[in-house]
From TrEMBL:
<dbReference type="InterPro" id="IPR000572">
    <property type="entry name" value="OxRdtase_Mopterin-bd_dom"/>
</dbReference>
<feature type="compositionally biased region" description="Basic and acidic residues">
    <location>
        <begin position="213"/>
        <end position="223"/>
    </location>
</feature>
<dbReference type="Pfam" id="PF00174">
    <property type="entry name" value="Oxidored_molyb"/>
</dbReference>
<feature type="transmembrane region" description="Helical">
    <location>
        <begin position="179"/>
        <end position="196"/>
    </location>
</feature>
<protein>
    <submittedName>
        <fullName>Oxidoreductase molybdopterin binding domain-containing protein</fullName>
    </submittedName>
</protein>
<dbReference type="InterPro" id="IPR036374">
    <property type="entry name" value="OxRdtase_Mopterin-bd_sf"/>
</dbReference>
<feature type="region of interest" description="Disordered">
    <location>
        <begin position="213"/>
        <end position="235"/>
    </location>
</feature>
<feature type="transmembrane region" description="Helical">
    <location>
        <begin position="40"/>
        <end position="67"/>
    </location>
</feature>
<keyword id="KW-1133">Transmembrane helix</keyword>
<feature type="transmembrane region" description="Helical">
    <location>
        <begin position="103"/>
        <end position="124"/>
    </location>
</feature>
<keyword id="KW-0472">Membrane</keyword>
<dbReference type="GO" id="GO:0016491">
    <property type="term" value="F:oxidoreductase activity"/>
</dbReference>
<feature type="domain" description="Oxidoreductase molybdopterin-binding">
    <location>
        <begin position="305"/>
        <end position="439"/>
    </location>
</feature>
<feature type="transmembrane region" description="Helical">
    <location>
        <begin position="145"/>
        <end position="167"/>
    </location>
</feature>
<keyword id="KW-0812">Transmembrane</keyword>
<dbReference type="InterPro" id="IPR008335">
    <property type="entry name" value="Mopterin_OxRdtase_euk"/>
</dbReference>
Length: 441
């Protein structure tokens, strides 16, 4: 190991030049010179990220359970096998639960982006450690690190693109995001098992309150550490740790402020700049969010015209016009509609109870599962299945009107499903058939 001079605006510093076969550039220890890097700062970012990622993971797995993949036609991830061990019959109460869990999943995920980037910045020298493998334990740790970083980047990038409705993936988002989540969680569990005790000790090694009081002029590198996070020849600081924490925290607060409004009905919805489908569109009864338009899914006005008929099938079959449905007992409920992208809104829906239509099909609603099929010609979720609990809930409707007006074509005219606490994509629009069957399990 020799030393060579490195000149900067602040003077001349020595960096190490590896002579043992390490590639040049970032693989050399002297390449990374920030005086802020060290176990304490890394542990602070890591512990914040750990708490946040646990919440994101739990709410994400709850979202998958809400899709009821055990029901026919609802499984968007064939071959999930043991990954579905935790699935349960998704409830209809409280009606706002999916709104909260999925909103938290998306908003917290966005809020954590600056923390994730800061954490990656703090440990980036370890990604270029040389030689790559020194011992079996170190090889296991590096493998977990590669899977952890790769998994985190994949999950965050695909999730953010999905929120923006940029479907540029050469694969289906739903199975990829689910399988990616389990790979990431396995790597995270291994990494936590290996590093959590060290992270806790590092976090306790310095006072957060003291660091928040330390000015730039008084900022000093952390003591040398065995993991090599502290720079061997640190450059003069250009930012204090207080400034670094403030910068990252401010970025997270900004991300939160630009997304939280998508789950709230009110003025804050206008601030949801990161949620293009979570904002206000106008004052009319049908002027609320539309993810997929009728034209985009191949539904025309003629399809939903006077010739439209609803097929209700079960022990017997009936065909109903919209006028027939309007002549049945109608019920009105204020229910939220919440989408996987994180946006949600509460509207007032009027329609026929799914339980009443089950009786027309000759199946008691307390024993009836349901598959609703749409007129749509393109895209995913042209049908959705519902459990006995969902069919029997008196608030579960085949909606004909919203906010006192007929549904618009983009909102599912002539009829759409509204089920409390169901993901938005399961509230099937442009319904052409309701197929009831006795409970399959």
């Amino acid at each position: 190991m020799t030393k060579q001079p490195f000149r900067s605006e602040g003077g001349t510093y020595l960096i190490r030049a590896h002579t043992g076969g390490a590639p040049a550039g970032p693989f050399l220890p002297g390449f990374w010179r920030s005086p802020l890097r060290g176990p304490w700062l890394t542990s602070v970012f890591g512990l914040v990220l750990l708490v946040g990622l646990i919440i994101v993971a739990v709410t994400g797995l709850l979202s998958y359970a809400a899709y009821q993949p055990r029901l026919p036609g609802n499984d968007t991830t064939p071959g999930k096998g043991l990954l579905g061990f935790y699935l349960f019959d998704w409830p209809t109460n409280p009606a706002w639960m999916y709104r909260i869990t999925q909103g938290a999943h998306v908003i917290l995920g966005l809020t954590l982006v600056p923390v994730l980037l800061a954490k990656l910045w703090s440990v980036i020298p370890k990604l270029f450690d040389w030689p790559p493998v020194r011992s079996p334990a170190q090889a296991m740790e590096r493998a977990s690190l590669v899977l952890l970083v790769g998994g985190a980047v994949f999950q965050f990038v695909t999730g953010i693109l999905n929120i923006q409705l940029f479907y540029v993936f050469p694969f289906s988002f739903y199975p990829a995001h689910l399988y990616g989540a389990w790979i990431f969680l396995a790597a995270l569990a291994l990494h936590v098992a290996l590093r959590l005790p060290k992270a806790i000790r590092a976090a306790r090694s310095r006072s957060l309150r003291q660091e928040l009081r330390t000015r730039l002029a008084d900022t000093r590198p952390e003591p040398p550490d065995p993991d090599g996070l502290v720079a061997a020849e640190p450059a003069p600081p250009t930012m204090s740790r207080r400034g670094m924490l403030g910068f990252v925290g401010g970025g997270s607060a900004l991300m939160f402020g630009l997304s939280v409004g998508q789950t709230l009905d009110g003025p804050l919805r206008r601030t949801a700049l990161l949620a293009p489908h979570g904002r206000v569109y106008g004052p009319g009864p049908n002027d609320f969010q539309v993810n997929k338009t009728a034209a985009g899914l191949g539904v025309t006005a003629a399809d939903a015209g006077d010739a439209w008929r609803l097929t209700v099938a079960g022990a017997k079959q009936v065909r109903l016009s919209r006028a027939d449905l309007l002549a049945m007992p109608l019920h009105t409920y204020a229910l939220p509609i919440a989408c996987v992208e994180g946006w949600s809104t509460e509207q007032v829906w009027t329609g026929v109870r799914l339980a009443d239509l089950a009786l027309l099909a000759g199946i008691p609603p307390g024993a009836a599962e349901l598959t609703a099929r749409s007129l749509q010609r393109f895209g995913y979720f042209g049908q959705a299945s519902f459990s006995v609990r969902q069919v029997a809930d008196p608030r579960s409707l085949l909606a004909l009107r919203v906010n006192g007006a007929d549904l618009s074509l983009d909102h599912g005219f002539p009829a759409r499903i509204i089920v409390p606490n169901a993901p938005g994509v399961h509230n099937t629009k442009w319904v052409r058939e309701l197929a009831y069957r006795r409970e399959s399990r």
